[in-house]
Amino acid sequence: MRVLLRTAMSLVLIVAVALLAALVVVPRACGWVPLTVLSGSMTPTYPVGSQVVVERVNGAEDANDLEVGDIITFLPRPDDPSLTTHRIVRKQWRQDGVAVFTTRGDANDTDDAWELTEQQIRGRARYHVPYAGYVATALTQEKKDTGIVVLAGGLLGYAAWQLAQAALHRRPRTRVRDTRADRSAGRL
Fold first, then answer.
1. How are beta strands 99-104 and 33-36 bridged, if at all?
2. Quick check: 85 and 125 in contact, CB under 8 A?
3. Averaged pLDDT score across all residues of the chain
4. Could you give the CA distance from residue 151 to residue 144 in angstroms, rounded to a whole number?
5. pLDDT single digits (tens) 30-41
6. Helix 141-168 vs helix 2-20: crossing angle, to nearest 10
7. DSSP-derived secondary structure for 5-62
8. CA distances (Å), 33 to each of 22, 66, 108, 164, in order?
9. Sheet strands (E) in 46-120
10. Are 91 and 73 in contact (CB under 8 A)?
11. Full-prediction pTM beyond 0.85?
């Protein structure tokens, strides 16, 4: 029973560390941004409630590197701060050398009505974590920060407990004597 409990605890901690890394550590280390999927326009690629991690696209040079098939996050209309994440289905060049992109949600039958330029594109999707967006939208930033501290403290506490258990159960090494050799040498 103890082995089963220990295995279950280890599995829970591994999953917690992986989620923490995917949703907090990697995005912060790389300067990426986690965003929550609120609509079904990108299903089945990104189900509603997923957390999509987006790499920032800065300027014309980054935008020119985008290709058909990339999934991007953008501002569809200049007067609306809402972000949309869809797939690039067409890339064209205007006469002045500016790249213009047409997008479409994977669940949609038609292309989006707008054409995008570099000024509207905010990022390129790198990966997603299903259902994590539900938690992200339910928690305030303060609760998220507290959760990270509690989880980190729990992991450190678990590591300390494991080290203490290992030290307590460590047995002193004893020499095993070969009794046959001792008898023949007259030591027994």
1. unpaired
2. yes
3. 87
4. 10
5. 999 999 999 999
6. 140
7. HHHHHHHHHHHHHHHHIIIIIHHHHHT-EEEE--SSTTTTTS-TT-EEEEEE--HHHH
8. 11, 18, 25, 39
9. 51-56, 71-74, 84-93, 99-104, 115-116
10. no
11. no
